[in-house]
Amino acid sequence: MGWLELSATLERRQQEFDSRIALILRTAEQRQVAIHCRTGCGHCCTMAVNCSFPEAVRIAHVLTAGQRQNLERALPLLIRISREAQDLKDFLRRFRRELGCPFLDSEQRCTIYPVRPFSCRALLSTRPGAWCGVDFSELHPLERQAFLSSLDRELVNFPTHYLALPQEIGQELEVTTQLDMRDACGVSLSGSMIYQIWLELEHGLSEQLVNNSVGARDLLVREQQEHPYLLQLAP
Question: How far apart are CA 27 and CA 33, in angstroms?
């Protein structure tokens, strides 16, 4: 499988996933389950987004000059947060507070919406958007317990308030995409959406990997060692 075929397969999977999400939303409406996601909300977009490398490549290849500039402005802060974080939880917390997604516009709308990764497509909130921006470690224990007690554990990905089924489907499709990459390139790469997009733009990594470039693999090993919160490389 070459990279063009891999990319086409990913695009088809994302379209099929969107069709399944539309069906899930209709079912939720019929069961009177409120889904609060709206254009311009942007609260969940403060979270660090992880994805497979093919998803990042698809985004990289459609970015405008302005979007690339936003990415380049975000990159130094992302690297600093990654290096200074005491652990993964600290990295994720600092990412939300200090960075967020560089692809939101001034009205908190996603500017890469058609090519956003599965991890974004799969988030469907059963609570008002403000809850998507809450740092639960800062909530009073009683408030946190009240929130958790209000969740339907058969419906959501507990202890979050996001529907479980879309996340299960999205994770399965992301893993399948990673396996496709391994078959095509001999390695599987995932991690920070922002950082992987930069790697593709800076190094043309997808073509190097599909051509079995030893230099590209050595680069990834070094990058993973230097930025363990940003990249996960598997044979």
Answer: 9
